[in-house]
Amino acid sequence: MSDPLGPLRDQIDTLDQQLIELFAKRLAVVKQVGEIKSQHGLPIYVPDRETAMISKRRAEALAQGVPEQLIEDVLRRVMRESYSSEHDNGFKQINPNAGPIVVIGGGGQLGGLFVKMFRLSGYQVRILERQDWSRSESILSDAALVVVSVPIHLTTEVIAQLSSLPKDCILADLTSIKARPLEAMLQAHSGPVVGLHPMFGPDVASFAKQVVVYADGRGESTYQWLLEQIRIWGAHLYPAPAKQHDQAMSLIQALRHFTSFAYGVHLCHEAPELELLLDLSSPIYRLELAMVGRLFAQNPELYADIIMAQPENLAMIRRYHERFGQLVELLESHDQQAFIDEFSKVRHWFGSYADQFMQESRNLLAQAHDQRHYQVR
């Protein structure tokens, strides 16, 4: 018997091929857009343009009976690819008169990413590693910008050795804590100082929509070109006082990484069959397990450094441990009403964000579920 679905499947295959051709044409246009943005110094990511375009496409989709969320999902994925391809054309050099840029630790992953971005913007970039320190004086002698990108526990030690930089040189760091490095930079250097914290890992395909926190140290008008260069790369710049930033990082990084670490250690000791967990998992558990597994696929020294970076992190983790113990006692007492009361208190604290996070998580879970593949047994 002939396949009754054959003709329809052939039509779908033809339409899919046409979609691929359209995507190829769109990426070709995006390349031209990237070239113009590079020439004129326009940022990769323009929020207003993206919002307006998505809104218009959703309305057009609705008018043709196409689910609005479907077209938004497709467009956002296409735009992510577009942002990645746009930087292949390089970027406008905001300060063509700047001297050499030195990235201390530029051979590492994050430092290397910034080396790449500065070079794509036309700057002369030098890398200073531990083995080059005997030549550091000549490497740093005419630097316009020095970026410190070394492990947290080495940062202040390295900064202390930078007391002979040119007076107008900008000194910056990329560390995930800001108060101590900023204080060290202000003591070591009399010129402009700024603390930077890229809120992403070195494996990002593009700076578009990524957040870079900056903490002012000294001479903001002097380092404005640096901030503008990062903005041209597509990043969103967020100013934050160093102490306020570090308090937030105790929750955003240290506690989050520690809880993932603790859950991974617990899983390892319980020794379940991972394949069985995945086969039986709901999309949300699979996503949670993926985030825990992601941690253990990376450099343990990096995460030890982040978690142990400041005493406040340990204090935060101890408070979490104490509350965890209290909630275990609540379960031991079989007090369901106390559980509901605590649940309601937290839900009230989240307020309207609870509904927002529900919608965001639905989108994430749908994407995670789309990538799930079953084996025929």
From TrEMBL:
Molecular-function GO term, any one: prephenate dehydrogenase (NAD+) activity
Record-annotated Prephenate/arogenate dehydrogenase domain positions: 99-361
Subcellular location: Cytoplasm
PROSITE patterns: CHORISMATE_MUT_2, PDH_ADH
Pathways per UniProt: Amino-acid biosynthesis; L-tyrosine biosynthesis; (4-hydroxyphenyl)pyruvate from prephenate (NAD(+) route): step 1/1; Metabolic intermediate biosynthesis; prephenate biosynthesis; prephenate from chorismate: step 1/1
InterPro entries associated with the record: 6-PGluconate_DH-like_C_sf, Chor_mut/prephenate_DH_T, Chorismate_II_sf, CM_dom_sf, CM_II_prokaryot, CM_T, NAD(P)-bd_dom_sf, PDH_C
Key words, A-Z: Amino-acid biosynthesis, Aromatic amino acid biosynthesis, Cytoplasm, Isomerase, NAD, Oxidoreductase, Tyrosine biosynthesis
All copies of domain Chorismate mutase, residue ranges: 1-90
Coiled-coil spans in chain: none
Protein name: T-protein
Species this protein is from: Celerinatantimonas yamalensis
Higher taxonomy: Bacteria, Pseudomonadati, Pseudomonadota, Gammaproteobacteria, Celerinatantimonadaceae
